[in-house]
Amino acid sequence: MYNKSKQLIAAQNVTIEEENLDNSKNDPTYKPHNASQSKTEKDSSGIVTISEVYDMEQNTNNKGYGKKYFCPYCKEKFSKLGRHLEQKHKDQAEVKSFVVFPKKSAARSNAIALIRNKGIVIHNSNFEFHKGKFLCARRPGPQKEMKSTALEVCPDCNGTYTTLSIKNHNCKVDTENLPNKTRELLLRGRQKFLHCDKGLSERMRVEILPTIQNEQYFEIIKSDFLILECGESFCKKYLEARQNYMICGYLRAYANFLIEIRKINSEISDFESVMRPHYYKDTCLAIKKVAGFSRSGFAHPGTATSLTMLIKKAAKVNHCDILMSKDPGRKAVQKEVEGYAKLCEDRFGEDINKIATTTYLKNKQNKQVELVSTEDINKLDTFLENKRLNALKTLNRINEDVEDIDADPWCKKYYNIWRDL
């Protein structure tokens, strides 16, 4: 049964890769809740990206009766999906694969579940179908509202679950060869179905963004235009795969800084809104909070200097984007962005970096090196003396026998020394 289900999943993935997710037929008169427009796209690597946040469809009944599923063939919802497939789409190859199994059997249920999961992925990937309401395996009740950002996709069975539900989801197909760790499961699922800007490079969507474990940082990074632009700039500068962890660290530092400066000033909404000269003092205060500033200096001086470098980098990237932009709204703030960049370039040295460098040198001078104890030195000396005595005894009874010398590495070492004397 597992082998049959594994073959069905392989065919399911191929079929989903061939689906047309074109949104050119979207209804222009419909405006979903919390979404100004529809942005869904599927690139050549097979990754589905969604850049807007939508609501999740809720159960109308507390017991879950009347829950409808999306048919991937006729593109409509049905409560009895298995019966509908058997009656209306019996000529489809995937339907033929489960018709041969007896009703209420595990193999039949698994085959129908694959088609159901395929329909959910197609439904959630096309605004023409979901109209601002996403589907998942376990839908919230009428009293609980959840957003589409809480959805994760199982990379093995294409099942769509919430972040809490997928941690308890155990795919029954070939479990011996599949990693069961939650982090690896979420990573592979995010690589396949990621809510982010469709204009990002493949490296950002596949290798960098899915590896960010902190959910709060992940949500901030993927929804902030300027942070993503800085990530793209780092990807162009650092091309080696081993530098992906460094780029992730930079993005997390941006997110951590943005969280702190929002606590200081509630008028700041995103990272681009920080780039104003009158927010420079708030910027310095946020850096000091992140780096643990006190009377004695910074608790983490390296974090302070890294943040100054990253903020100056973000100011340059933002300035270049404004120069290339045709948006008059962004052109209007060009002088303010230039002023902020100049302030950071001129004042960070004396406001942040000088204190961080002084703290680093003071910590280096006051650093206490724990030396090896006398007892450990005596143990090592006794051990080496015993080894030397045993090697000397072996040398005394050896008559140029190479095999005996090679058998004992200590003997071979001291024999070579004795021969060179």
Automatic annotation (TrEMBL):
It comes from the Eukaryota. Residues 17-44 are annotated as: Disordered. PANTHER family: SET DOMAIN-CONTAINING PROTEIN-RELATED, TYR RECOMBINASE DOMAIN-CONTAINING PROTEIN. This is Uncharacterized protein. It comes from Nasonia vitripennis. The lineage of its organism: Eukaryota, Metazoa, Ecdysozoa, Arthropoda, Hexapoda.
